[in-house]
User: Which sequence fits this backbone?
């Protein structure tokens, strides 16, 4: 399970360094192989290869009425690999789609990661914190 937030910067070639606390798990469970695709909220999703394969099967089983979502998730998916120094190349197309140029936030979301443009994430998080709590959380004990 991946959790926690990491601030990071992409280099001039669009590579990001995977935080060291996640590298060992990704190497052991996925042999350093990842898949990156678009998320409907404007960020990117990064999956370890085995988890991507489970997600891909779920998406493939959707009915024709979800064909555009299949295109968004599967048509934009890019397989990548951790290099020898723990970096991952994020394609120019995916960086543009998520508005990521340099500064980013990587969030562990359980079985996948979200990669956000840092300013976009900060603005959306602030907006969410100012709004009402969703009904499903109103009875949740903190």
Assistant:
């Amino acid at each position: 399970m991946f959790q926690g937030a990491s601030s990071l910067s992409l280099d001039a070639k669009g590579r990001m360094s995977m935080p060291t606390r996640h590298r060992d798990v990704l190497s052991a469970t996925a042999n350093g192989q990842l898949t990156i695709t678009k998320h409907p909220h404007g960020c990117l999703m990064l999956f370890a290869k085995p988890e991507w394969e489970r997600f891909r099967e779920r998406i493939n089983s959707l009915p024709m009425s979800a064909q555009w979502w299949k295109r968004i998730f599967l048509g934009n998916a890019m397989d990548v690999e951790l290099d020898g120094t723990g970096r991952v190349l994020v394609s120019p197309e995916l960086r543009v789609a998520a508005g990521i140029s340099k500064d980013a936030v990587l969030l562990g979301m359980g079985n996948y990661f979200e990669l956000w443009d840092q300013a976009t994430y900060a603005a959306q998080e602030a907006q969410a914190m100012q709004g009402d709590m969703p009904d499903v959380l109103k009875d949740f004990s903190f």
Summary: Residues 2-138 form a domain with the Chemotaxis protein chec fold (CATH 3.40.1550.20). The mean pLDDT is 95.
